[in-house]
Amino acid sequence: MTNPKDALDASHFDLNRIAGYRLSALSNRLTLWSARVYRREFGVSSLEWRVLASLAALGPATARDVAEFAVLDKSNVSRAVHRLTHRGCIEQSGHPVDGRSRILTLTEEGRILHGKISAHSRQRDKDLFRGFTESERESFAAFLTRLDERARLLLRATEK
User: Fold this and answer.
1) Which residues, including other chains, have CB under 8 Å from residue 54's CB and lie 6 or more apart?
2) Distance between CA atoms of 4 and 8, rounded to whole angstroms?
3) What is the rounded distance in angstroms from the CA atom of residue 155 to the CA atom of residue 140?
4) Which residues share a beta bridge with 106?
5) What is the pTM of this model?
């Protein structure tokens, strides 16, 4: 039998005071915003954009490298890679050591698309932070870096 005090405490649980929930909800909102614009303007999903951006940052890489870099599920990355390859934005070649892996490289078309979306993404970021001071933006970036470092430590602790 549950303690009535526990039930009362649970009924006063404020999800909006849980950092993980707030960050996840914000991330989902930003992803939805991106998804609508990127699909309409550029014909790509948010996931496909993250794959393009990851390859632009990494250079030639495997789907596993992209998944780890962008903190994405490898099967979702593989599906996005398939679509981007079909579209002509990524080319795949054999891996020199691992016969099961493929090396992914942005094509000229992929680099052009990345450039267009990057410009749009920078503008979107400006729109998001309109009304914030430079100091607030810098503090926010530093805070996110510290939170990410802490989250990485906590995640690593679950691997044991």
Assistant:
1) 61, 66, 69, 70
2) 6
3) 22
4) 90
5) 0.82
pLDDT digits (tens, 9 = 90+) for 106-147: 999 999 999 999 999 999 999 999 999 999 999 999 999 999
Lookup result for tokens 């914000």: 26
Residue 49 has a CB neighbour count (10 Å cut-off) of: 24
3-class DSSP assignment, residue 92: strand
Which domains, from first to last, does the chain contain? 17-128 (1.10.10.10)
Residue 137, C-beta contacts closer than 8 angstroms, at least 6 positions apart: 129
Top-confidence residue, 106 or 99: 106
Query: Rounded to the nearest 5°, which phi and psi values hold at 92?
Result: -115, 140
- Is the pLDDT at 99 greater than 80? The verdict is no
Q: What does the buried/exposed string (b/e) look like for 81-97 if buried means 16 or more CB atoms within 10 Å of the residue's CB?
A: beebbeeebbbeeeeee
pLDDT given at position 13: 84
Q: Where are the alpha helices (DSSP H) in the chain?
A: 4-11, 19-42, 46-58, 63-70, 74-87, 108-128, 134-157
- Two tokens at 44? 């790509």
Task: Specify whether the CB–CB gap between 48 and 80 falls below 8 A.
Answer: yes
